[in-house]
Amino acid sequence: MCQPICDAVYTPPPPYVHPSPPTVTPTTPPPYVHPTPPTVTPTASPPYIHPSPPTVTPTASPPYVHPSPPTVTPTAPPPYVHPSPPASAVNPKHAKCKNKNYPTCYQRQFSCPESCPDYCEVDCVTCKPVCDCNKPGAVCQDPRFVGADGLTFYFHGKKDQDFCLIADSNLHINAHFIGRRNANMGRDFTWVQSLGILFNNHKLYIGARKTATWNDASDRLSLSFDGQPIDLNEAEGASWESSSNGVTITRSKATNAVEIEAENKFKIKAVVVPITEKESMIHKYGITQEDCFAHLDLSFKFYSLSEDVNGVLGQTYASNYVSRVNIGARMSVLGGEREFHSSSLFATDCAVAKFNGNGNGDGIENQGMDFADLNCASGINGRGVVCKR
């Protein structure tokens, strides 16, 4: 059935002939020719023309108009009213010269100075009122002493303790100090509350009674002699006199002021005064209404002392006394608390004590002492004044 196909003649393919590679004829590249730069014809820049400034048409400023001040309607100031002075300045106490040896001044009356409006005396020599606290022999305030040489110093001591003011052979005076502690200053504020005086084997007591609110019309003075209380009528001039010892006590005013004199020994002026609210505020005492710290302002005059008298005040009367006061200091303070400390008001055991009650030994008359004859020179290290009798 397939015969026609089987009868076909097989013809083999021709042999494979590799094709000849193409013939390449190298060609020489043409020489490099630099390109011709383009021809640039420069053109001149146009001249610079400054831009025209803008045209500004000035306008006139409006005239300055001052603002109108506010309208103030003046009012008349209130009339000046003088502050009311303290009562003591409105009605100061008066004093008279009581020494008949000065007839031109005797019985002349003067108002007390502003520094002591409640109590003063008249110096009949100058015929002027003076404050006892500014005279030699004064012990006042926080205790402020004026020595026999006229120089002022402070001795603070300690509260609730006793110190000898005068230490002599036949006169010994102790002072009892009251006060308040001042933590900021490291010391006590102190005042003299009472005196214990020994002479000729006698004991004299002068003291200020404790009181809360002060009233000068109420007598706060306490007195005793040899342990017996002394009662004085509350009237200026009222007096008491011992029977045989030449001691007299006289009221300088109706209450709270007396003058005590022991014949040929001493004269003491004592005034009971309080710490006022104003004083407490100024000095920061811290005084409360429970206690106005009534105390004594004192003035001493001595008729006979020995040459070696001692004590806080007494040393200034000694013949060899040289002042340690620095007058350049705002507040000259004298030390010696241990030296002058006494165990009680009538004790004679301070370190400088010499009391025997048998007389004065080498006595000197101090009455009418003339302070002008003091020999004063510059002090130690050139500060202060040293005065020697």
Can you characterise this structure?
The protein has 4 helices and 23 strands. With 389 residues, the chain is mainly β. Among the domains are: 44 residues, no CATH class; 211 residues, no CATH class. The strands form 6 sheets. It has an 8-stranded antiparallel sheet, with no helix packed on it. Strands 13-12-11-10-9-8-20 form a 7-stranded antiparallel sheet. Strand 3 and strand 4 form a beta hairpin. The N and C termini lie far apart (189 Å). The C terminus is likely disordered.
Write the layout of secondary structure elements.
Blueprint: H1 3-6, H2 87-90, E1 94-96, E2 109-111, E3 121-123, E4 128-130, E5 138-140, E6 144-146, E7 152-154, E8 161-167, E9 172-182, E10 187-199, E11 202-208, E12 221-225, E13 228-229, E14 239-241, E15 247-251, E16 257-262, E17 266-273, H3 277-283, E18 295-302, E19 304-306, H4 337-340, E20 341-342, E21 363-365, E22 375-378, E23 385-388
Antiparallel strand pairs: 1-2, 3-4, 5-6, 5-18, 6-7, 8-9, 8-20, 9-10, 10-11, 11-12, 12-13, 14-15, 15-16, 16-17, 17-18, 19-21, 22-23
Short description:
5% of the residues lie in helices and 29% in strands.
Structural class by helix and strand composition: mainly beta
**Which overall shape is indicated by the principal axes computed on the Cα atoms?**
elongated
Q: Taking Cα atoms only, what radius of gyration do you get, to the nearest Å?
A: 56 Å
Largest sheet: 8 strands, antiparallel
> What is the averaged pLDDT score?
78
**Unreliable segments (pLDDT under 50, ≥5 consecutive)?**
76-90, 360-389
The fraction of residues assigned to DSSP E strands is: 25-35%
Helix content: under 10%
What is the straight-line distance between the termini? Answer: 189 Å
Q: Element order, helices and strands?
A: HHEEEEEEEEEEEEEEEEEHEEHEEEE
What is the topology, as strand order, of the major beta sheet?
7-6-5-18-17-16-15-14
Number of helices: 4
Count every beta strand, where a strand is a DSSP E run of 2 or more residues: 23
